[in-house]
Amino acid sequence: MGTYKIAVLPGDGIGPEVTTQALRVLERVGARFGHTFQTTQALVGAAAIEAEGDAISDATMALCQESDAILFGAVGGVSRYEGPNSKVQPERALFRLRKELELFANLRPVRPFKALLNASTLKPSILEGTDLLVVRELTGGIYFGKPSEIRQTPHGLEAIDTLLYSEGEIERIVRTAFELARGRTKKKVTSVDKANVLSSSRLWRRVAERVAADYPDITFEHLLVDACAMHLIRRPASFDVIVTENMFGDILTDEASMLAGSMGMLPSASLGTRQTAHGTFGLYEPIHGSAPDIAGQNKANPIASILSLAMLLRHSLSLEAEAQAVERAVEQVIDAGYRTEDLQEAGTTIVGTEEMGRLIAEAV
Amino acid sequence: MGTYKIAVLPGDGIGPEVTTQALRVLERVGARFGHTFQTTQALVGAAAIEAEGDAISDATMALCQESDAILFGAVGGVSRYEGPNSKVQPERALFRLRKELELFANLRPVRPFKALLNASTLKPSILEGTDLLVVRELTGGIYFGKPSEIRQTPHGLEAIDTLLYSEGEIERIVRTAFELARGRTKKKVTSVDKANVLSSSRLWRRVAERVAADYPDITFEHLLVDACAMHLIRRPASFDVIVTENMFGDILTDEASMLAGSMGMLPSASLGTRQTAHGTFGLYEPIHGSAPDIAGQNKANPIASILSLAMLLRHSLSLEAEAQAVERAVEQVIDAGYRTEDLQEAGTTIVGTEEMGRLIAEAV
Ligand SMILES: CC(C)[C@H](C(=O)O)[C@@H](O)C(=O)O
Ligand SMILES: CC(C)[C@H](C(=O)O)[C@@H](O)C(=O)O
């Protein structure tokens, strides 16, 4: 038993409503397992821009730094900050958190629930046996390289972005992927790059091969990102751990979310190097966005947020039994036929965000 | 009637065998419609590196320049040129052709044949009505930006790539997309970018909006690349023309190929600005690669190459009836139940590369 400090950043759109349900589940975990979770809420995204003048304030950054983990909702999708000329972007909150807290390893597991095999747009027979983990580099690459700007030239405007990786950045993320593969069944790492075009990918490949040599027990392969985008939906069950750079990881995980039936099912953990008293410091968030079109309508699927909470319990608080209890509760409620609107299917019972949260909390 | 000059570059792996079948179909078109097609073959890729010291020679470039169109097979996938330290890459042939011939507009249509709806890993109900065209920018972006290199720093190696776009480059590709949308049924353009992260995407969005204003008859929307990777397999039938930058187009089209059942079905056209006596100069190639694992085994699907030939007839030679005759021939043979190995299904007849080519040629 102990006290755990969690910073809660609900953000924009459906962020607050799904986070509320994750907190409801957390409360239930506390009661059942006898833990005290000290949660502190703060603003991020458009909400923070309006109230505090920036997408995330220094005070909120400090709060995060003093916590054991961060439970994050979603930011962005707010049209008045989306124009190509907008000065502050809600997404800045995410970039600042990821970069300043050195959350370089973004873990995005994709394991379709049996009861949801039919909910996907892919054939159930293709999904059978799918259990993969994308390890996405999160603090480097084209997200952070400079210059990144629009500039005037004699022939009109031009824009530039910079994709930059150091050996050290590549090495630590690839090593993380191999370590994670050791704890899994298939024991395989697929490193995804575009080595036939990018210099950064050629360095990536070189470093990945060096790291792979330290893990003779793990099957290792390279795959080009375009081929991977195809094989993910052609033979998803053949993958185990996929490790890749920031932008490729962003694209491939949104695609992979369809394997699980809905993006509303997929959690993520962003881990750094810092160890707290309880585990590895990290930020946990659904991979879905703020979905402004359904915000405030009690329609959003809170499961991605609840499964993110389970990852938080596991990785940052080292509460494995509690994490599993949450995951089992989700599976139970799904097995019992409850669905939010994103997973509509004949023979299921559609419930709202709140009701789904309540059902899962009760099942814990 | 007339004489048409076509440069034929079969390349590596399965490139030669699929191209041979396209040429067989071309011969049949010539006989049936009374045209003389003057074809000249040359080496590209690994084959050219070995025989001529570079992935494409100046003589071959000159041949291309003097032709009305190029029929291209595939390059790359040759392991001795794939190491991260390899000096000449077979892919250089493609980059040189694209860049020097200014083939900026890469058209990749995806329209699953009815008889193949079941061959996809996606559910047939999802595919119903899918008829999309990806217009990929092909001569800019991170494929060509400088610096692109691996360099020594005091803290070890680092690698850099540069994503660069000028207003002019964006404008011409977006305009191409809108023009093409005008000739289609759904009359819709989806511009795909990552404007919440990239400066180049913010410029892209600005220019796309300016161009869109000239086409009030076309529905227009922006979509983030990660969301697009998801929606492509979630609601493919909702797309019409998708316009995007070079790398995003590369990834999304490989993914989209699964909608058609197999990458072996998908043709592409790369068009430039130059007008020949007969139409728009262009390069035509399957979107699949050299597939070294099945090369020389009479297993490859020649349909992507044959459909690329149909695009060549249409866009570069302005032979629309001939193009349609080829497309109808392919559909007939598919409807008759013939498949290559990549499309194996109960109740179909598996044939080799040659036999498939012969059947289609006969059906023209
Ligand atoms: C909101 C956006 C900037 C972000 C990203 O691209 O990283 C999101 O898509 C994600 O995957 O977490
Ligand atoms: C071979 C490779 C360099 C090429 C590309 O990335 O453009 C291929 O994937 C394509 O899509 O034509």
TrEMBL record, chains A, B:
One of the record's GO molecular function terms: 3-isopropylmalate dehydrogenase activity
Swiss-Prot/TrEMBL site (Important for catalysis) positions: 143, 194
Gene, per the UniProt record: leuB_1
Subunit record text: Homodimer.
Enzyme class: oxidoreductase
Family matches, as SUPFAM superfamilies: Isocitrate/Isopropylmalate dehydrogenase-like
The organism of origin for this protein: Thermogemmatispora aurantia
Record-linked PROSITE patterns: IDH_IMDH
EC numbers for this chain: 1.1.1.85
Stated name of the protein: 3-isopropylmalate dehydrogenase
